[in-house]
Amino acid sequence: MPARIADVASVTAWVDAATRAPSMHNAQPWKFRYVPATGVLQLRMDTARSMPRTDPSGRGMHVGCGAALFNLRVAAAHAGWPAEVRLLPDPADPTLVATVSFAEGDGSDPVSGLRPAIGLRHSSREPFTDEPVPEELLAGLMGAARAEGAGMSVLGEWQVDAVVEVARDAEQDESLSSDVRDEIARWTGPGADGSAGIPAESFGPRPHAGRAPVRDFAMGRPVPHRRSADFEQSPCLAVLGTPQDRPQDWLIAGQALERVLLRATLDGLSTSLNSQALERPDLRWLLRDPHSPTTSAFPQMLLRLGYGPTVEPTPRRAVSEVLEVDRAAPP
Q1: Which one, of 275, 290, 74, 51, lies nearest residue 171 by Cα?
Q2: Per-residue pLDDT at 292
Q3: CA distances from 233 to 85, 197, 211 (A)
Q4: Is the pLDDT confidence value at 104 over 60?
Q5: Could you tell me the maximum CA-CA distance found in the chain, to the nearest angstrom?
């Protein structure tokens, strides 16, 4: 008998889960196209959501699309339809970052167990407690990164000092560039369009003390009723990296990042992402640990892990805005 093809309602639900992924400034740089006749789902970068000043290479867009792809894999596997993924299938079409087909499975795909975390994972810009993250949890997160072909290194105390300095340098440089400030303002605070970006209420408190590298999206703009708070003195920071630094590696980084974040969420951890220093090539390499394994040779994301309060999710576009269904039969 011919193999069954995933129905539109199921694929729509899986794409909805995909859109819960994190992305740079919550720009949500993805769009999907499903052809029921062939059972193939295309994932493309939405170039209308690019950031030429802060992400000129498109690395951040690829990482965001990779995170969405991983959520899609998790949701499909949980429904008993594990995904078969081809990254960058057409060299002549670089915006087509992946094609995905689905086949009925026996539910044994290990990523399916992460499904409950998709709706619970939210980036936090709140202070975390001083409670240390247990070594066994950190080891599990490093294993999650390895399972996707990436690596994650937890930073020691002296490395944290260096990273904090790098983040401060990036923030200072950002404050001096009107072009960069204008681009960020497009996606944050009043510039956010209501279905994407980071609204002012998600900025978190203004840091009063502490060493946690938390990005301040206010950038000097007034935010009514915003409070200040003390952040961690000894933050738990980790750098996620890949063996190489090509578009395919950026997609791998996005999938590894989301696998780590979902695992951390199920472990009861709060998570925060910081790409600020990574947006500057000269500063990015300062985050590279010369003693890290080759799997994380090229830094792709800085993570902050710990125990913090529950935070509200940032907005998401409706599935109808990001998914096109092509019901025409193939020739």
Answers
A1: 275
A2: 65
A3: 42, 29, 5
A4: yes
A5: 65
